[in-house]
């Protein structure tokens, strides 16, 4: 039993004690109707997953390098299709298979985190794919705290779309590569959803 279920049971028990006898079906329906109005429903989890287009879109900007490198002087060691994190250090060399396996795992992780942040917010596959690409590039913490996510969740896709362009700086410096990527992500976000798209 969840804490919510337990709370509802306690409420009905309290009403029975106050009334002094069992509740009729009419009583139960009346209480349930009131609860439906005042107790917020729990959002259903998102069922979105990165599409094949999303994977190819990210690969088009990340490119694959099998030796660890610094994308910019202020960046962190990166390898494969943009993989970073513990264990990734300059001098590390991967095979293509290692790079592809790591990318699949990274995409699944970022996709899941973005889906969790979206919850039940109405989101097209194109919007989701664009936000996964952004999160893959700037990190899920930055994405979670972004105005873009807040506007999207508030039902303002037009406002959210204009936020992509703000994420084109590295250490305060505007980078042409990031400017191009943000413009492409914005265009993808605004693309009409196509039902034939499938997860990667």
UniProtKB/TrEMBL annotation:
Reactions the enzyme catalyzes: Hydrolysis of (1->4)-beta-linkages between N-acetylmuramic acid and N-acetyl-D-glucosamine residues in a peptidoglycan and between N-acetyl-D-glucosamine residues in chitodextrins
HAMAP family reported for this sequence: ENDOLYSIN_T4
EC number(s) on file: 3.2.1.17
Domain of life: Bacteria
Keyword terms, alphabetized: Antimicrobial, Bacteriolytic enzyme, Glycosidase, Host cytoplasm, Hydrolase
Native organism taxonomy: Bacteria, Pseudomonadati, Pseudomonadota, Alphaproteobacteria, Sphingomonadales
Protein's name in the database: Lysozyme
SUPFAM superfamilies attached to this UniProt entry: Lysozyme-like
Cited PANTHER family: LYSOZYME RRRD-RELATED, PTHR38107
Assigned protein family: Belongs to the glycosyl hydrolase 24 family.
Residue runs in coiled coils: none
UniProt record, GO biological process: cell wall macromolecule catabolic process; defense response to bacterium; killing of cells of another organism; peptidoglycan catabolic process
Record GO terms (molecular function): lysozyme activity
